[in-house]
Amino acid sequence: MEKRLRVGFVGLGDMGEPLARRLIQAGFPVTLWARREASLAPFAGTPYRRAADLVELGRASDVVGVCVFAAKDVREVILGDDGILGGMAPGGIILVHSTVTVEAVLDLQRECLTKGVTVLDAPVSGARQRAEEGRLTVMVGGPATVFEAVRPVLDAFGSNVEHLGPTGSGLRMKALNQALLFANLNMAALALDASRRLGLDRAATEATLRSSTGDSFGLGLMVGRMLPDRDFGELVMRIGDKDLDVFDRVREPIEADTAELAGIAREANENFARYRNVLDGINKRAA
């Protein structure tokens, strides 16, 4: 019987928590590490192993998924004084699910290879509900043989797992996806505000657009989570600022041909915030 890969995971936030849960449900021996006790609470009653620190996480794992927020966080948990790399054996694989620059993951790859550990960029897309259902898109960059070795791990939470090419290719694809997503969010905010100015009922407008040809993932995200949950809306705007910075780095060689897309995407946060503030004012007057 083939031995199952031992999988570690760090970064148990809105996306990381359902990813780790899917790995447990798939039957992998899973080890988790988190700074905050609250991050581990959702795993109570599941057969995971808790690592005391990141070195132990690396030591206990053949593969480690990293789903923290920014490039500095990724670098800290992997290469820090007490980081994952300090415990991983040669032949280990680190999956970077975070959206960081291509340069950042290439630097990680160079440093990890000195210890015989391979880094794959493996950002994901699809939001929390699809993560919980195991229906994410996973965009992978790195050696094809390593991709095939970890494919069963990625299949635990991804229904569309694509190998895009060498290291950095997954992040290039994710950056393009994010630019398109935030362009769609921008259009959604403008359309919803236009419906208000036209005197259309808000709930009926949202229901109609969501069931019509004008629908988009961005519109669904906006009316389904960003507007009802202010904290989540703020998180998405923070993610947009970060990920569009990554897109700017990716598009530098072809800047003239991508400036319009980048510009439309950059307007999303401003137009969403303006529309949300208008709704806040309407709700206050109605109270």
Word description of this protein:
With 287 residues, the protein is an alpha/beta fold. The chain has 2 domains: 7-165, Rossmann fold (3-Layer(aba) Sandwich); 172-286, no CATH class. It contains 13 helices and 9 strands. The strands form 2 sheets. A 6-stranded parallel sheet has the order 3-2-1-4-5-6, with helices on both faces. Strands 7-8-9 form a 3-stranded mixed sheet. Helix 4 (71-79) links the parallel strand 4 (63-66) and strand 5 (93-96). The longest helix is centred in the middle third of the chain and has 29 residues, at 169-197. The termini are far apart. 41% of the residues are buried. The mean pLDDT is 96.
Give start-end ranges of low-pLDDT stretches: none
- What multimeric state do the chains show? single chain
Count structural domains.
Answer: 2
CATH topology heading of the largest domain: Rossmann fold
Strand order of the largest sheet: 3-2-1-4-5-6
Short description:
The protein is 55% helix and 13% strand. It is an alpha/beta fold and 287 residues long.
Blueprint (SSEs and pairs):
Elements: E1 7-10, H1 16-25, E2 30-33, H2 37-40, E3 49-50, H3 54-59, E4 63-66, H4 71-79, E5 93-96, H5 102-113, E6 118-121, E7 124-125, H6 127-132, E8 136-141, H7 144-155, E9 158-165, H8 169-197, H9 202-210, H10 217-226, H11 230-250, H12 255-266, H13 268-286
Parallel strand pairs: 1-2, 1-4, 2-3, 4-5, 5-6, 8-9
Antiparallel strand pairs: 7-8
Helix pairs in contact: 4-5, 8-10, 8-11, 8-12, 8-13, 11-12
